[in-house]
Specification:
341 residues, alpha/beta, Spore Coat Polysaccharide Biosynthesis Protein SpsA, Chain A, 2 domains, 7-stranded mixed sheet, 12 helices, 55% helix
């Protein structure tokens, strides 16, 4: 845990100053893939593809369609993007498919709704090209960002940030952004399970817990054009995101999760327990037997939760060590392939 924490503290280093030129040799040599998840975005998909082609002429552009019922696929093909189809509905399934099927050195993920500016990609790419980050997040909640958020989305974002940062001791500034840059190490080394909009939460928290280097940089977010609609549902997706955060606390921080649950159950048991003890001290009798049984049951359950927490904590630590080793092996393989090429 200690080494993870120290990696976490250095998870958002200040990026070095850099000069951005679209014809940087690294950009030309590096295989860049632009990945666009798309579900009914016929109004904007063409402009998104063209904007990224203009900014990154050598990049390969992939549109991952998910059973769109409009003309998104035709528009994407007309614009010269490679279109891949994923049958399982949901942004998370699409991201899993992208990470599995596309081979590149650097991966850019961006919404197909035209709300993220392609012109700001160079700022996001710079820390990746300088090998300072494994994940670069375009943060829409910075002071410098002029982001058109709906009020509920902004509040939801703030709530999930507060929840994540307090539970994981991190200092993430935007965890639901759809504008991200990843390196190969990240894409091929992170197991993802989410099917829906909780994917961004899973990406961020797993990146933190697995010690990947994260850099967040401000981007502007514009509003969708008239006639184009967000696919996120504040209530159902909000519940999915909350439950994803709690599941990840259970899996990655079992001592915190089960320890808190155990403590709560023990305190709950203290309520009937203290009534029984006080009565016993006063009269020397235990007349409320059901109270006594309830208190014993709750305190024992609390202790059980705590023991499970300690047990899982040790197992998780061992798994983190195995993960670390596997990551080293993967790094060596990627390096040796690069040398062969
Ligand atoms: N392939 C696929 N893409 C989706 C799905 N739901 C949303 N998207 C895409 O994911 C991106 C983000 O969704 P969006 O509705 O813009 O969410 P918001 O940015 O949080 O409002 C957009 O490009 C959508 O077209 C889905 O079920 N499948
Ligand atoms: Mg969007």
């Amino acid at each position: 845990m200690l080494h993870l924490r120290s990696q976490l503290e250095s998870a958002t280093p200040a990026p070095r100053p850099f000069v951005i030129q679209s014809a940087r040799p690294e950009v030309l040599e590096t295989r860049i893939a632009v990945l666009i998840p798309c579900y009914n975005e016929e109004l904007t998909i063409q402009a998104v593809i063209e904007d990224f082609k203009r900014e990154l002429p050598t990049a390969e552009i992939y549109v991952f369609d998910n059973n769109s019922r409009d003309r998104s696929v035709e528009r994407a093909i007309e614009s010269g993007a490679k279109v891949l189809c994923e049958r399982r509905q949901g942004k998370g399934f699409v991201v899993q498919a992208m990470f599995r099927d596309v081979d590149a050195d650097i991966y850019i993920m961006v919404d197909g709704d035209g709300t993220y500016p392609a012109s700001e990609i160079h700022q996001l790419l710079a820390p990746m090209l300088n090998n300072e980050a494994d994940l670069v997040v375009g943060s829409r909640l910075e002071k410098e960002s002029q982001s058109s958020f709906k009020i509920f989305n902004r509040l939801g974002n703030r709530f999930f940030l507060l929840m994540t940062n307090s539970l994981f001791g991190s200092s993430v500034r935007d965890m639901l952004s759809g504008y991200r840059v990843f390196n190969k190490r990240f894409v091929k080394g992170l197991p993802l399970l989410s099917g829906g909009f909780q994917i961004e939460t899973e990406l961020t928290i797993k990146a933190l817990e697995r010690g990947f280097r994260i850099v967040e940089l401000p981007v502007h977010l514009s509003a969708r054009p008239k006639g184009s609609f967000s696919k996120i549902n504040i209530l159902s997706d909000g519940l999915l995101i909350s439950s994803m955060i709690l599941s990840l606390v259970r899996d990655y921080k079992p001592l915190t999760f089960f320890g808190a649950l155990g403590l709560f159950t023990i305190i709950l048991g203290m309520v009937p327990g203290s009534a029984v003890i006080l009565e016993y001290v006063r009269t020397g009798l235990v007349p409320k037997l059901p109270f006594a049984l309830l208190a014993i049951g709750l305190v024992l359950a609390g202790l059980l939760f705590m023991s499970v927490g300690i047990l899982l904590h040790s197992i998780t630590r061992r798994f983190q060590e195995v993960d670390f080793m596997m990551q080293s092996v993967l790094d060596t393989l990627i390096q040796s392939r690069k040398r062969e090429i």
